[in-house]
């Protein structure tokens, strides 16, 4: 935390009773500062057996991002991203936590294997923004929790996203068929409601008596 603060970035870690360990969210400008200044401040603070590999990840990540942002010739940096990926995997074989095959996220995979190809194809990735992708990700999360049966998350997301492109294709609520006519029209539903009301009143009286006795 002290090293991050020395870079001019406000950062804190605290323990939340419900969510556990929490930390300050960083803005884009703060991330750029840390990528630029923090590696030099981490020297001597990391485990000696893996310090060079960890610093290599930081420096390579910054170099590649800078290349994607500023290079307009479409030159290939796939060797650097593949080296980043190999180092990340190799660190998983050490005692350090947070690395290895099990820790490879979709973002790391795209950074190492797809981003360099797209940079060559389009000339410069810095011309594009990922805000639209992040927005769609938020929309799909909402769909998953509100409009999905959660049996197949990936398939549901694709189907719902495609369906949302045309409002006329949205699924309509199915009509509920009241098969038990006697229950709905013969007074069964009314009796059920009266029972629930009596049960609630009895529970209230019982709890009130207990409170008065105590």
From TrEMBL:
<feature type="region of interest" description="Disordered">
    <location>
        <begin position="188"/>
        <end position="214"/>
    </location>
</feature>
<feature type="compositionally biased region" description="Basic and acidic residues">
    <location>
        <begin position="190"/>
        <end position="214"/>
    </location>
</feature>
<protein>
    <submittedName>
        <fullName>Uncharacterized protein</fullName>
    </submittedName>
</protein>
């Amino acid at each position: 935390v002290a090293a991050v603060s020395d870079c001019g970035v406000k950062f804190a870690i605290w323990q939340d009773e419900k969510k556990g360990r929490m930390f300050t969210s960083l803005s884009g400008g703060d991330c750029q500062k840390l990528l630029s200044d923090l590696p030099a401040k981490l020297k001597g603070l990391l485990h000696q057996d893996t310090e060079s590999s960890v610093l290599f990840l930081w420096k390579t990540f910054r170099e590649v991002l800078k290349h994607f942002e500023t290079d307009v010739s479409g030159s290939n940096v796939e060797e650097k991203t593949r080296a980043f990926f190999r180092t990340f995997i190799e660190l998983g074989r050490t005692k350090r936590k947070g690395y290895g095959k099990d820790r490879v996220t979709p973002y790391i995979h795209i950074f190492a294997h797809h981003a360099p190809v797209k940079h060559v194809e389009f000339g410069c990735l810095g011309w594009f923004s990922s805000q639209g992708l992040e927005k769609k990700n938020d929309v799909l999360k909402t769909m998953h929790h509100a409009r999905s049966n959660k049996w197949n998350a990936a398939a549901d997301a694709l189907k719902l996203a495609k369906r949302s492109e045309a409002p006329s294709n949205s699924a309509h609520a199915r009509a509920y068929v009241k098969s038990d006519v006697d229950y709905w029209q013969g007074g069964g539903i009314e009796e059920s409601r009266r029972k629930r009301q009596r049960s609630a009143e009895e529970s209230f009286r019982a709890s009130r008596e207990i409170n008065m006795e105590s």
